């Protein structure tokens, strides 16, 4: 159990350091496009993903660097993807909001809010049709629960009794709009009742609490007892996307209050209180820091995709290159 707890800590720190360095690189123009960080949400990400097997499916969302990291994906190709390099997990053509790593069951994510729900439901249906006991975990934010795809997916999962865990990362805001102003229920978990679905609420800043709740949901799904809706109460410390500026959202003292519940610091204190040596945690942090620095070097030293690669990994492969590329 101690090794598992140290791995909780390692993966949370790995997500934090990956995103911290990525945000700095984005600010210098090294990383193109948008960059959405999950700083403050590491516990619900790691606790959920570590409740899965490697071959179980996982679907993320636009705020999704942490999900494949928590699922066990290597950081070198993830960082290279952010940099748009051909060594990235999607060949440098997906970027920050389109990470996938099938080797660890990460089916990817998109910037379309709620779009991962039907993908996760489809993966669970596929597992059933194949006679597999794999389950499907789907991450989405509070805003996605107002999308039609969310309700359609929940309904199908319920009537077909599919092995899906719907994990709502309720970080209280959709961009800068408070969830309380656009969601009709106090707790998103209440929406499970409309689909005769078991629902749970968990403290998203407590990695072990999340792990226990999601593990129970995984066991239910794997044993044929159907889907579960889990609402993790969490908070993102940064703005909606990197370098948007803080003018979009004035959170007053709210942010300071949540910073006191930093999931990494809470877990550090818990581990130290249970007898884990501070030197051991410091060693983990140093190892993770070096790992991320190595991933940055890997990304920077990798080549960009060739122009011709724009015509691969599409629905129909071209029979021949256009003349201007063939020259």
What are its keywords?
single chain; 327 residues; alpha/beta; Rossmann fold; two-stranded antiparallel ribbon; 41% helix
Task: Walk me through what this model shows.
There is one protein chain. Helices cover 41% and strands 11% of the residues. It is of the alpha/beta class. The protein has a single domain (2-326), classed as Rossmann fold, CATH 3.40.50. It has a six-stranded parallel sheet with strand order 2-1-3-4-8-7, with helices on both faces. It has a two-stranded antiparallel sheet with strand order 5-6. The termini are far apart. The mean pLDDT is 93.
> Can you tell me the number of structural domains?
1
CATH topology: Rossmann fold
Number of helices: 11
Please report which band the strand proportion falls in: under 5%, 5-15%, 15-25%, 25-35%, 35-45% or over 45%. Answer: 5-15%
Oligomer: single chain
Based on the coordinates given, report the CATH architecture: 3-Layer(aba) Sandwich
Please state how the strands of the largest beta sheet are arranged side by side: 2-1-3-4-8-7
CATH superfamily: Thiamin diphosphate (ThDP)-binding fold, Pyr/PP domains
The CATH class is identified as Alpha Beta
> Which structural class do you get from the secondary structure elements?
alpha/beta
Listing every helix as H and every strand as E from the N terminus to the C terminus, the arrangement reads HHEHHEHEHEEEEHEHHHH
Overall geometric form: globular
- Share of helix among residues? 40-55%
* Average pLDDT over all residues: 93
Uncertain segments: none
Measure the end-to-end span. Answer: 60 Å
Question: How would a textbook summarize the main sheet?
Answer: 6 strands, parallel
Per DSSP E runs of 2 or more residues, the count of β-strands stands at 8
User: What Rg, in angstroms, do the CA atoms define?
Assistant: 20 Å
């Amino acid at each position: 159990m101690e090794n598992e707890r140290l791995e909780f800590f390692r993966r949370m720190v790995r997500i934090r350091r990956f995103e911290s360095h990525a945000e700095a690189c984005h600010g210098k123009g090294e990383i193109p496009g948008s960059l959405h960080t999950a700083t403050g949400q590491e516990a619900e990400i790691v606790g959920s993903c570590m409740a899965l097997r490697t071959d179980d499916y996982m679907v993320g969302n636009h705020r999704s660097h942490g999900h494949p990291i928590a699922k066990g994906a290597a950081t070198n190709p993830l960082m290279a993807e952010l940099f748009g390099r051909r060594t990235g997990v999607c060949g440098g053509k997906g970027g920050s909001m389109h990470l996938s790593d099938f080797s660890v069951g990460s089916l990817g994510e998109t910037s379309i809010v709620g779009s991962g729900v039907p993908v996760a439901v489809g993966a669970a249906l596929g597992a059933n049709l194949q006679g597999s006991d794999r389950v499907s975990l789907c991450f989405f934010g509070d805003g996605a629960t107002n999308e039609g795809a969310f309700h359609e997916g929940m309904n199908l999962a319920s009537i077909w009794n599919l092995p899906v865990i719907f994990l709502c990362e309720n970080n209280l805001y959709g961009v800068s709009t408070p969830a309380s102003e656009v969601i009709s229920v106090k707790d998103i978990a209440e929406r499970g009742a409309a689909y005769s679905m078991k629902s749970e609420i968990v403290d998203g800043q407590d990695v072990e609490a999340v792990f226990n709740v999601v593990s129970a949901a995984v066991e239910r799904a794997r044993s044929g007892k159907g889907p579960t809706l889990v609402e993790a109460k969490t908070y993102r410390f940064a703005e909606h996307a990197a370098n948007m500026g803080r003018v979009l959202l004035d959170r007053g003292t709210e942010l300071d209050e949540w910073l006191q519940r930093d999931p990494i610091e809470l877990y550090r204190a818990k581990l130290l209180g249970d007898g884990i040596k501070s030197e051991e945690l410091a060693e983990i942090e140093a190892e993770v820091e070096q790992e991320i620095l190595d991933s940055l070097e890997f990304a920077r030293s990798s080549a960009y995709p060739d122009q011709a690669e724009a015509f691969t990994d599409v629905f129909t492969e071209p029979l021949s290159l256009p003349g201007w590329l063939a020259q």
